[in-house]
Amino acid sequence: MYFMVFLYLSLMLLGASLYLLIMNLTYILEFNFMMLNSTNIYFVVLLDWMSLLFMSFVLFISSMVIFYSEEYMAGDIYKNRFILLVVMFVLSMMLLIISPNLISILLGWDGLGLISYCLVIYYQNLKSFSAGMLTALSNRIGDVALLMSIAWMLNFGSWNFIFYLEIMKGDYIMQLISYLVVLAAMTKSAQIPFSSWLPAAMAAPTPVSSLVHSSTLVTAGVYLLIRFNFSFSSNLMMILLFISSMTMFMSGLGANFEFDLKKIIALSTLSQLGLMMSILALGEYKLAFFHLLIHALFKALLFMCAGNIIHNLFNCQDIRYMGGLVKHLPLTCTYLNICNLSLCGLPFMSGFYSKDLVVEFMSMNYLNIYIYLIFYISIGLTVSYSFRLTYYSMIGNFNFMSLHIIQESSMIMLKGMSGLILFVVFSGSMFSWMLFSTPYFICMTFFMKMLTLFVILIGGWLGYELAKFKLSYQLLTLKFLSSSLFMSMMWNMPYLSTLGVNYLPLYMGKLYLKIFDQGWLEYYGGQQMSKNLKMLTLMQLFSINHLKIYLLLLIFWLMFLLLNI
């Protein structure tokens, strides 16, 4: 039911978005939410081509994911609850997309954070619980930053930030708000130093990963920055460019050392988020949005293919057990290959239209050698881990159980995946013609024009070599164990964001418990003091035998009377 509703809504919103784009229209709707004494509280909705197009993509991907989940989660007792959680997740994202107001953005933002926690801990085990807590607490930092920006925005007399972005750009308060918004977006989109929650969130079911990593949770940060981009100062943009380029490089490097199928795809998402944020920091928000849309399609399908493979391999996620799957799962492997090639930016696939444009736009700018190198190396690393994944899963020897039944019998899952494949192939060219009415004029030398293709080829060769010499590669890894662990553990970031943050508070808690709760407070705490006071109070002695004491006091009183007489 939800699948059909979301699909129809998606098509309607796509048409409306194209109409608004062609007519160059923007609608801002205000609903009188409630009236308290003389105060009106309005609910504001922003409808322009960008919000409608993004909503259309989110609804289309979520409709395919829900359809896919019908079979993927078929063995689950609480399947309906899972579907409802996904629907609530999508609705939170919708609220965030259509909000030009910081309060309603916070509602959607917090909804995403809360429901993502519920979905990450869906499989009730220790790993899921710790991953869920890491996800929730990392995102709380961004929530606090948003709350602080809401407090600062009181100075403007309204929380509708859309009206103040350009006109107040030079204002100190607006700059402070933009710094806080960037911090919030960095936590949601898992940029350094908040990156460790993204691979940890892979504890969630695969359909959730498909939705989270394509168009909802992690893209919320990028979308918020696209909306706020007019208010960014040059200093802030340089900081954002540095952090996002480092994230892109770090995740690309980490994915080449990873053996968990879902984590490789998660690190690839992180790399693409770094790319979106860095192009945004260079001042081209439309291009960042274009790459966001195209990436959403092929990343959703990539996770769906991974889910089908994991399903067939009895929930095994280690790519070293896979190999030769193209014989057993031809259609799934075809889709996986197409998505991988689109991710690499192979000419005339959808990813090429956004990625190549992004890189060429970057090359046209006047930047230092660090940015050039890190961009091109990151592109090479993307191709490297994609080819390594392809080799391990499709070309190498089949390393799973000898007795197996691996076949493409899951028709519903295949239909859900097939709904996305045409868009993965054709959406790049289609939307590049639609969104950019004026083509970018890029004038480059032949060497620079060919550099991207050259780096892609080198990256592909490197990934193939890394995968081919499995044994020697593993021996090499053992030789340089410390460095490979450093790379695969995302530059020790999981340690920093877990043990690095909670070790001292936990140790202090232990000391507090030992010294105070079970130590001095045992003697001087509330209960012990009340016991001591009871023992010391003379009045207690009087009240042990009431009648005797009363008569004794009466005799004393009579004696005093007689003595006075």
Automatic annotation (TrEMBL):
Task: Give start and end of each NADH:quinone oxidoreductase/Mrp antiporter transmembrane domain.
Answer: 99-381
The record's GO CC annotations read: mitochondrial inner membrane
- Whether Oxidoreductase counts among this entry's keywords is no
Which GO biological process categories is it annotated with?
Answer: ATP synthesis coupled electron transport; electron transport coupled proton transport
The superkingdom of the source organism is Eukaryota
State the UniProt keywords alphabetically: Electron transport, Membrane, Mitochondrion, Mitochondrion inner membrane, NAD, Respiratory chain, Translocase, Transmembrane, Transmembrane helix, Transport, Ubiquinone
Q: What is this protein called?
A: NADH-ubiquinone oxidoreductase chain 5
Gene behind the chain: nad5
